[in-house]
Structures
1.
Amino acid sequence: MPLDGNAIGGLLHEVFGTEMTDAVATCGTCGASGRVAETVVYLRVPGTVVRCRSCSAMLMVISQIRGTSCVDLRGLAALDPRGDG
Amino acid sequence: MSSPVSRGFRRRHRPSGGQEGRVPPGQYVTEGFPVLSAGPTPHTPLPEWTFSIRQAGNTLRSWTWPEFQALPAENITVDIHCVTRWSKLDTGWRGVPVEALLTQVEQKAPYVMAFCDGGYTTNLPAKDVTGGQAWVAFDYNSQPLPAEHGGPARLLVPHLYFWKSAKWVRGLELMDHDEPGFWETYGYHMYGDPWREQRYAGD
Amino acid sequence: MAGTAIRGRLSSRPRPWQVATVTSVIRETGSVVTIELEAPGWPGHRAGQHLDIRLTAEDGYTAERSYSLASANGEPVAITVERLDDGEVSPYLTEELRAGDELELRGPIGNWFVWNTPDGGPLMLVAGGSGIVPLRAILRHRQRSGSDVPVRLLYSSRTLDDVIYRAELERYRNDGAQITYTLTRTRPPGWSGYSGRVDAAMLAQTAWPAGQHPLAYVCGPTRFVETVADKLVGLGYPSERVRTERFGGVLWCRWMGTRSAACCTRCSERR
C-alpha cells in the first residue's frame, strides 16, 4: 500500500533546500490542491511516484541513482512552499 | 566526507546452499512475493480487456479475453529478479508465449514497447521477447493472477529485471528504434540484464 | 510542468546527514525497541516530526529508512523501531545495534504532521500499531510544555503485549488523559476494553464530538489511517483538522508466521 508525502520529507528537503511537506501542491490534471504531506506516495518501486489523492494522476516522479536525484514535476500545476521551512 | 560504517550492518544475505548459480549479483532470495506498484491497481473488467499489437498508431491485431484464452498457453517455472534486489526462485506461471502473438502480425520490428493499464510502459528488444523467453502470463501458482501482481495478465520476461515484466499489460507497440519506457526515462537501464547487473543507465 | 510557478522563497537551509552515536537501546516489547541518540548540533524538533537514518555496510552498501521521533523537544533524540522479520534495517536496529554504535541521521523532517502547543485542541490521537510513536512525542511535548489541552488517545494494537509505552500511557491516564485501547487479535482474560478493528461505532464513542473543534492526529498503517480519517470526517471533523501519517503496514503472514512488510500471495491477514 502506498504511503503519503511525509515519507519523502527528507528527500524533498534535499532536492528543494527547504521543508516541503506543508507545501501546497496543485494537481495539473484535476486542479485539486492539498499539502504535499497528504499526497499518495509509492516508494522504491524502484523510484518514487507521487500521486494526487483526488484523481490519482502522477504529480512527481523522483529517481535517485548513483547519488543524483532526478525530479520530474510533470503533473503539478503549482507547488507553493509555505512558511519559513 | 565519507560515511562511517555501521558496525555489524550488512545487506540482506546472499544465498548459500546451492542457490549461488541461480541468483544474480547483488540479489537476495525472498520467500514472499513483494507487491511493488507505482500507482493504484487497475481493474479492467474482462469483457473490456484486449491485448493489441500496434505500430505507428495503428492496431495491427487485437485479442479479446476469450480469444486470448483460446491461444496455446504453457506452464513454466522460472526465477525472477527485481531491481530492488529481491529474487524469487521457482515461480510457476501459465501464459501465452509472446512469440505466438507477434507471429500473428506481418509487420516486424526490432523493438517493442509494452503498454499497460495505468499508463506504465517498458521497452524491450523484439529478440528478447521471442524464442521462448517471454510470455503474457495470466495464472500464477495455478491460480488466476491476482490484480495486485498484475492480473488479469502481465508480461513475463524472467531473463531481465522484473520491471520489464510489465503488470496489467494491454499490448505491444512495434518500434523501429529503442525508446525508453517509464523507468528507463528516469535512469534505469534500457536493457536490464540482472546477470550483468544492468540496473541503471551506464551500467 | 508547463507554466508552473514555484512560488515562495526557497531558502537554502539543508539538513545534511550527520553522524550520531547510540546512547541506549531500550526494549519496549518483544519486537520493538527505543533507540536514544546523541546528535551533535541537533537543532531541536517538534512533536510529530521524523528523522531519516542511513546505515552503511563495509562494502559500501547503504540503506535508508525514516522513523518518527519518539521524544519531545528538550529530551534526547529518540526513535522507536518495530522489527519486521523480512526487513533489512529493522532487524539490525532492534537486535544488533548497541550503545556506542554510530549511524547517520538527517532531520528533523516534517512540517505538517506536527503539533505545537499553540495549535491547541482538544486533541484526538488515534494510533494503529507503531503509529503510537509520533503521538507519544505529542503527549510528551504536551506534558513538558505544561499544556492543559484535553487529550484522548485511541490505540489499536494486536495484543496487550504489543502495546508500546504502556506504563507511560497509564501515567497520562492518571493525569486526566482518556486512553482507550482496542486489541484486535487476542485479549487477556477478563479484558473489558474494546476488541476488534477501529470502526465508526468505536470512534463515535471515543472521539471528541466535532462540536468541540478537536484537532486529530492519526498514524499507523495506510489502510488503518484512511479508514479512521474517513470516519472522523464522517463524524464532522473538518478534513484540515485531521492530520495523517501513513506507515508501511506490517502484514502478519499466517502462512509464514512472520511480521512482514511484503505481501505474500498466500496470506490474507493485514493489520
2.
Amino acid sequence: MKRAFPILATFTALALVYASYQALRVAPTDALQGDVYRIIYYHVPSAWTAFLLFFINFIASVHYLVDSNRSASRVAKWMVLAIGIGGCVVAYVTPLPNGMRPSVAATTALAITAVYFVIGKYFSGDRLDMLAVTTAEVGVVFCTIVLVTGPIWARPVWGIWWAPGDIRLTSTLVLWLIYVSYLVLRRFSNSAQTQVLAATVAVFGALDVPLVYFSIWFFRTQHPQPVIGGGGSMDPRMLHVLLISWMAFLCFAFLVCWLRYRFETMRREVEEAQVLESLLGDDRGPSAETGNPKVALNRSGL
Amino acid sequence: MHKQSFTGGDAMSLPSSTTRGAITRATLTKDIRLEWRSKDALNSMLFFSLLVVVIFSFSFDPLAEESRRIAGGLVWVAILFAAVVALNQTWARELRNQVLDAYRVSPAPPNALFMAKALGNFLFVSLLEALMTPLFIIFYNLRALGPAWQLIPIALLGTWALVVNGTFFAAISLRTRSRELMLPLLLFPISIPAVLGMVAGTTAILTGENSAHFWIVLLLTYDLVFTTACLALFEKVLDAE
C-alpha cells in the first residue's frame, strides 16, 4: 500500500497536467462565450467530485447508524435493494420530468445500491466514521471550488455574479452550508460519541437536499433566471476533454482522501495510546511521576 | 402525574402506547407548568421579536404595496430568530440535577420525551405568533389580498417544521462547546426549504398574485420527512453523551 501511494501521486500529477493542457489548448473555443467557457473544465469536474464525495459521506453515515443494530441494518439493506430495483422499473415504466433520461435515473438508482453494499463490505465500525469525515472535508473543498469558479464564469457571461433563486446555484450553496455545519459540529462537539451526532446531521442534510431542489424548482419557474448551458448539447470534443478532466480530478480527490484517511487513522491511534498511557500512569501511583519521565511529560501536556 | 404512570405496572417493561402517551403528557404538563411559573422562554422570545419588528419597521419604512411583498420575509425571520431563544432552553433545564441522565437509564421510550418537548416548543412558538401577528399588522398596515385563512395552515405547518428540527438539533448542540451558538448553525441550513415555503407562501397570500397551494404541500412534505427522521434518530442522540 505504501508503495502504491507515490505511484498514484505521480500518475495524478501527470493526469492533472494533461487535463489542463487539453482544457486550455486542445479543446475548441466556444462560439458564443469565447475562452471564458474553459473554466467549466474545472468547475464541472469539481462539482461532480463534490457530489460524489457527499454521497459517499451519506452512505457511510447511514451505515454507521444502522450497523450497530441488526434489525435496523436488515431493514436498511432491503430498503436499498428496493431503491435499486424500484428505481430501474420506475425509470422505464413511468414518464419522467422532461430533461431526465430513463437510463440516467436507472443508473443513479443502481449506483445507490452498489455504493451501499461496497462500503458495507469494506468498511465497518469506526472506519465508516473515518470515511465520513474524510469525504465531508474533501467534499467541502471541492464544493468551495465550485462556488468560487461559478461566479467568475457567470459575471462575464450572465452579467451578474450570482442568480438568487436559481435551482443549481442555491442547492449547491445549501449543500455547502450543511456540510460546513457538519464539520463545525465535529469540531465543537465534546461528546464521546461525536460520530453518532455527526452521522445524524449527515442524514438530515441528505434528506434536506431533495427538498431544497424541489422548493426552488417551483420558485424558478415563477421567476425565470438565466440558466446554465444552452439546451444541454455539447461538442463531442468538449465532452471528451471534460471527461478527461473529471478523471484527473477524481484521481486527485482519491489521493487527498487517502492521505486524510491515513492521517485520521494515525490520529486516533495516537489518541488511544495517550489515553492508555495516562491510565497506566495512574495505576503506578505517585512514583510514576519521577520514575517514568515520558508519562510525566505527557501529563504536563507536552 | 408521574406517580400514576410509573407505579401502575412492571416498571421494566413499559410497553403500551398508553404509557408512551402518559409520559409525553406528564413531561408536557411539567414543561408548561414550569413555563407558566417562570415565563422565561416566552418573555425573552416576545421581547426579542418585538425588537426585531421595531428595528425592521424603521429601517425599511415601506409603502403598503411594498410591505405586502416583504412582510412575509420579515415576520418569519423574526419568528425564526425568536424560536431559537426558546429552543436553546428546551434541554438546558433538564441538565440540572442530571434529569436527562435519569431519563436515559429509565426504561421510558425516548420518543415520548422528544414529542413532549417538541409539542411544548410548538405551543410556545405558536403563542408567540398569535401575539406578534397583530403587532405586524399594525406596524406594516397589512391586509391580505389572497385567501387569508390559508395563513393558518402555513403558520401551523411552518412552526412545526422549525420546532421539530429545532428540538432535535438542540439535543445535539447540548453535547457541544458553546451550545447556544451551535443550534442556529445546525438548524438554519436544514430549515432553508421550510423557511422558503413559509415566506413564499405568506407572500403569495398577502399579495394575492398566485396560489399558496404548492407551498403548503411542500411544508407538509417537509414536516412528514423530518418528523419521521427525528423520531427514528432521537434515541441515538439521547444516548450519545
